[in-house]
Amino acid sequence: MKFRVRPVPRLAGSAEVPGDKSVSHRAALLGALADGATEIHGYLEAEDCLRTITAVQAMGAAVTRKGPGHYRIDGAGRHGLREPGDVIDCGNSGTAARLLLGVLAGQPFWVMLTGDESLRGRPMGRVAEPLRRMGAAIVGRSGGSKLPLAVKGTRPLRAITHDSPVASAQVKSAVLLAGLYADGPVSVTEPAPSRDHSERMLRQFGAQLVTGERSVTLMPGDLRGTTVSVPGDISSAAFLLVAATMIGDPGVTIHRVGVNPTRTGVLDVLEAMSARLRIEPAPTVDEAEPAADLRASASELKATSIGGALIPRLIDEIPVLAVAAACARGVTTIGDAAELRVKESDRIAALARELDKMGVGVQERPDGMTIAGPQRFRGARVTSGGDHRIAMALAIAGLVAEGETVIEDTACVATSFPQFAATLNTLAGTPVVLVED
Ligand code: S3P
Question: Could you tell me the residue range of the domain that residue 383 belongs to?
């Protein structure tokens, strides 16, 4: 599949983005582990999160789709999951794989986990190592650090304190999920705060946690089913916001977007770049995750520098922020972001390679990049390399390019934002992103 993208003079109106990917995965997993029923509203019906639904179904949780994004999960209970009849395929989803590893560490049966080519290349040792210390058996490729992995859990697991070398919510969440089966409190500390959806949702399901700025301790115990309302995904909204700051005349409003402070680095950076941005708190049904209506309009962007503790708060938004940086006046630097090299693709290399084809220079560094602006994008033939966020960032670049841009390999967009092209076409009032086979 490919996108044919045409430049667009204006974007206007309002849109919604689909449910938050991180929150959706967690709702399905905790719903499956809870006693009783969980109702989920706004679940992200995209490939990644549907993998997690399939996985919990395979282990005995009863899942009913009651309407678009509306699911009921009759939980199996903390001790009620059963051995699945086949390999669990996590597709492209790192969150599904790593969080499932945490759950499986506490299950007394064997499970094989695998994923697509991209996921099979991504590091799993960062999760497997602490889970092994807790007592789980995890074996597989590359010394047990790459999928496919076979996992056999045990109960109880040993309570540990894990001092994570990376600020990764997936690592933290895997250890916390395993911690539900530990023989005492389990703690995780990290070098900078990562997204805290697991902590918020575990509390919602009745778990006891003590949280500090860079640490969390969970007391093992049962979960009880609840109602979860998933806000819109700020990582999807970011593409529309950046597009609106470059061409949004009169501007674009995106409703009910999740603005958990551990995720709003992109808003801080756009403000630092002088973007015209309005953030209006939106009524939420769900106390756990704050939401807001976000409005962005055409702005004279200025360069900024992005690094340090900001990085985990916007790690998934860097591809589209790189596009914004190319349009901004001055030199933007992005550092402390070596994690970008182990996402769905090596995003530093992908941005440098593909933006170069569009006539935009990106200076690649081991842990980030430097982009001098403003530069003009030229329509070109580029490829996503199978990475959804690279595909969408290139499409946003295509909206401000001279001439037509063709982006190859865009089926991956369905992993997180299947309505991406349709949403942009509505805001443009004309087809600007054409989806072709
Ligand atoms: C996620 C955490 C981040 C993020 C990913 C989703 C999560 O990954 O990049 O898209 O839901 O916990 P890391 O934990 O590897 O930083």
Answer: 2-19+231-436
